Amino acid sequence: MVDPDEFVARLTTIFREQLDDDNLTINIDTKQSDLGGWDSLAHVRVVMGVEREYGVQLDVDEIETIKSVRGFYAAVNSHAESD
């Protein structure tokens, strides 16, 4: 299981890069609706960043249902447990 604080720190870096906002802050409860720049294109870029960072391959159904940092955390952990 991935440490939640470490996950948020690493995901913050991904979000900052993909949303081009060096001052962006997120937490485990951040939702897509909380960030104006988190549109469908940014979502795909964040997914790709998460997949690279954690060496996982998220399936289309997962990608479509992830709407929060917590959703990314759950998806990464489900893949980590299945490996």
Account of the protein in words:
- The structure is a single chain.
- The protein has helices at residues 4-19, 40-54, 60-65, 69-82.
- It is an all-alpha fold and 83 residues long.
- It has one domain (4-82): ACP-like (Non-ribosomal Peptide Synthetase Peptidyl Carrier Protein, Chain A, Orthogonal Bundle), CATH 1.10.1200.
- Helix 1 (4-19) crosses helix 2.
- The model has no long low-confidence stretch (mean pLDDT 95).
Per-chain topology:
Elements: H1 4-19, H2 40-54, H3 60-65, H4 69-82
Helix pairs in contact: 1-2
Report Rg. 12 Å
- Give the distance, in angstroms, between the N- and C-terminal Cα atoms: 11 Å
Q: Please identify the structural class as seen in this structure.
A: mainly alpha
CATH architectural designation: Orthogonal Bundle
Percent helix range: 55-70%
Oligomeric state of this protein: single chain
Described by the principal axes of the CA atoms, the overall outline is globular
Low-confidence stretches: none
Order of helices and strands: HHHH
CATH homology superfamily name: ACP-like
Overall mean pLDDT stands at 95
Indicate the proportion of strand residues. Answer: under 5%
CATH domain fold name: Non-ribosomal Peptide Synthetase Peptidyl Carrier Protein, Chain A
Q: Biggest β-sheet, characterized?
A: none
Report the total helices.
4
Task: Compute the number of structural domains.
Answer: 1
- CATH class descriptor name: Mainly Alpha
Number of strands: 0
